[in-house]
Amino acid sequence: MEKALREILQDAVKRMIETGVGPIEIEVPKDEGFGDLSTPVAMGLAKMLKKAPRKIAEEIVSHIDRGDTFERIDIAGPGFINFTFTRSFICRELGELLTESETFLTENVGNGKKVQIEFVSANPTGPLHLGHGRGAAVGAALANLLQETGYRIEKEFYINDAGKQVKMLGLSVFAKYQALCGREYPFPEDGYRGYYIDDLAAEFKATFGNRFVDTAFNEVAADFIDFSYTKMLDLIKKDLEDFGAIFDTWQSERELYAAGEVEQTLDDLRTKGYIFEHDGATWFRTSDLGDDKDRVLIKKDGDYTYFTPDIAYHRKKLEKGFDELIDIWGADHHGYIPRMQAAVQALGHPRESLRVVLVQIVSLLKGGQPVQMSKRAGEFITLREVMDEIGPDTTKFLFLTRRSDSHLDVDIEVAKAQSSENPVFYVQYAHARINSIFDKARESGFDRHTLASFDGTLFNDEEMRIVKKLLYYPMMLRGAALAREPHRITFYLQELAGLFHPYYHRHRVITEDIELTKARLALCEAIMVALKHGSKILGVSSPEKM
RNA sequence: GCGCCUGUAGCUCAGUGGAUUAGAGCAUCAGCCUCCGGAGCUGAGGGCCGGAGGUUCGAAUCCUCUCAGGCGCACCA
User: What's the structural domain count of chain A?
Assistant: First the structure.
């Protein structure tokens, strides 16, 4: 519906301004009385054409053939053009929705653009916590959303298997291992203290016995590090899989070093003149590229900073030929964006090719009281706990019912208590309910595949309202994709379910009247398709029974 | 001190320039099971959109200032 209007408007405007204009804004009016769709385009053009908005609106309207598409076209307020579609046009669209099914709901906005989404990328030093879960939910949903709207997507997890963090993990396990073997060994101050460290130490001992007792950590560091982080990574992979976050590629930081990528990146930047030496360290002149200050790449002691392999990593991504990189980061890393974009630019790509989606920290409450979460101290609620407690669907929906950059308080008590009152069930229930209507309908001999021939004149106002809501789906999806905001789908689904449930209570779908039944079943079918499609993008199931 | 994010109903949040009465869920209160699934439905109460200025025909939305919370500001990761 919106797509058709967009094309009509483009044509009309082109007759006035040969060059045409950029994307034309089309919106659903707040008040139904203002029509089905409306555009403020005339107001936007007012400055450029130096004419009154209403005059421009009139001119645009004069170039539009009402045909059997529009019931009426009005100019209202300061210059809005309001469009009301004819019933026959709307029903024709519904018919297309039914025959084309999911294809009707999506639109190709990506044009095959290659986009890589990197998300979660948790250090393999412990189980995933709730914050990671939010990143996983958002990343997976965004990937699905873009996939559905014509982008080519790769989902990647970056494994920090080379830095200090995994070393600390190894040392923590080493210390516990020594203790298990009856040796005195100081536990590192910054060590990881979670219960899983004890488990790892015990597992290590069970595997290797006392073989590593009485050795210095430095001599056996690799054994402990590799053993521990691979176990943790396996755990993470399992959690993500059960959560429904499936990755295409797993990029190891070590591999970047091994393949000489880090060195090459430094050479590359050096050749381009961004590198300088100062105070015994090697610097990257990011301040030339929009960063606050220059950044160190090689420290005085000869080690790389965290930034350095990360540049190499992004360089590798860009070389794989992606048009856009989306990184999903915790909001506490937002200060890191300018320097990473500077790096992207230094490597010869537009800085916009890196788009960072920030996911705010999840604050945890327990019965209204804040719970301090610290990975090092081992005090945190894991994604696994919550997922097991309230289910992956509810957890995902919880994360996707908010904008990703909004602060989110999760009260674990409330979340558990609400598990049967959660909005996700409202949406799923609508789907299950329709499914059960169809079970009933089949008993009465109605076939789901002959519904496209429904008689749309039988729809009452309430039904027409639902049909229109369904026809708004493609534009909602398009907007969500362009804004990279999957939460819009969540809200849409709640609204759609919110139209269906009251409708269901007021009207019987299956009645003696065969034509009316067919029309209503057609409507139900369409609702079901939309619910299913949106839920699938969110990674939430659409159960047939609950 | 500087920067970023957030401040909307009791709670959790949508809406982020255009059109009288600013929306949803939860919570609270009052109702609805002869009928396709009550994880549902109907209704009620509840808001100077943190505050103050400004731009505009028009501001929750844009600009400035200000208050409050969160997060950043490393030769840490």
Answer: 3
Total residue length of chain A? 546
Nucleotide nearest to A494 (CA to C1'): B24
Q: Is the pLDDT of residue A418 over 80?
A: no
Residue A280, CB, strand B, below 7 Å: yes
Within-domain flag for A462: yes
> What nucleotides of chain B have any atom within 7 angstroms of a protein Cβ?
3-7, 12-15, 18-19, 21, 24-27, 35-37, 39-42, 57, 69-77
- A245 and A377 in a single domain? The answer is yes
For residues A483 and A366, state if they share a domain: no
Tell if A403 CB is < 7 Å from nucleic strand B: yes
Contact predicate A300/A279, CB 8 Å: yes
Distance between CA atoms of A249 and A323, rounded to whole angstroms?
Answer: 17
Whether residue A480 is found in the same domain as residue A386: no
**SS3 per residue for A293-336:** CCEEEECCCCCECCHHHHHHHHHHHHHCCCCEEEEEEEHHHHHH
**Position A544 in a domain:** no
Same domain, yes or no: A368 and A511:
no
Q: Measured from the CB, is A291 under 7 Å from any atom of strand B?
A: no
Question: Which ipTM did the prediction report?
Answer: 0.93
Q: In what order do the strands lie in the sheet with A408-411?
A: A369-371, A362-366, A408-411
Better-predicted residue by pLDDT, A196 or A18: A196
- Domain interval for residue A38: 2-85
**Residues 466-495 of chain A in contact with strand B via CB under 7 angstroms:** 485, 487-488, 491, 494
Q: What is the pLDDT of residue A242?
A: 95
User: Model confidence over A272-287: pLDDT tens digits?
Assistant: 999 999 999 999 999 9
